Amino acid sequence: MRKSILTLAAVAALAAGAAHAETATYAVDPSHTFATFEISHFGASVNRGRFDKKEGTVQLDRAAKTGKVDITIDTTSINSGTAAFDKHLQSADLFDAAKFPTIKFVSDKFVFNGDKVSEVTGNLTLLGKTQPVTLKANQFNCYQSPMLKREVCGGDFEATIDRTAFGMNYGIAWGFPKDVRLVIQVEAVKQ
């Protein structure tokens, strides 16, 4: 009798654990996702740009407090608002879009503060070089979209990277800073 009670308790615990942990897959919504960068221009102003084409997936298990992300950014879609500057950004001096048409961020380490994602640590590949990057969340939330009739999760994330770690050295000798601020706004739709 005691063995059957223990067996029942073990089965119930396994079933509860299986029901409790559920990884959901979300597709990045390109109309609500923007990858932007900011870099000081001789200390007088800040140059900004964004990438208009991006895609990816997020896997999230809020109960288990785990997640994965895989996002690809098209470097040819850079948009600073000025065509001549965009052309220079795409050149071999900077993003070298002809040789390296994508930037990739891949992570399987999410940190939670309560039920909210507070940071995502992963690997950023830029100019063929991969470096660790931690994106800190300024905000994060999941909601039921009244338009899509599905759950959407997203947030605003940021990090500062040393561009020279990826081999992007243009302008360093003239005093351009090596630090670049990344600002990532992302929303992803549950599939």
Protein structure class: mainly beta
Main sheet attributes: strand count, strand direction, barrel closure: 8 strands, antiparallel, barrel
CATH superfamily: Lipid/polyisoprenoid-binding, YceI-like
Question: What is the distance, rounded to the nearest whole angstrom, between the alpha carbons of the first and last residues?
Answer: 45 Å
Count of separate structural domains: 1
Order of helices and strands: HEEEEEEHEEEEE
What is the helix fraction of residues, given as a range?
A: 10-25%
Tally of helical segments? 2
| Strand order across the largest sheet | 1-4-5-7-8-9-10-11
What CATH calls the topology is Lipocalin
CATH architecture: Beta Barrel
Morphology:
elongated
Count the beta strands: 11
Portion of residues in beta strands equals: over 45%
Q: How big is the Rg?
A: 21 Å
Top-tier CATH class: Mainly Beta
Low-confidence blocks of residues = 4-19
| Residue-averaged pLDDT | 91
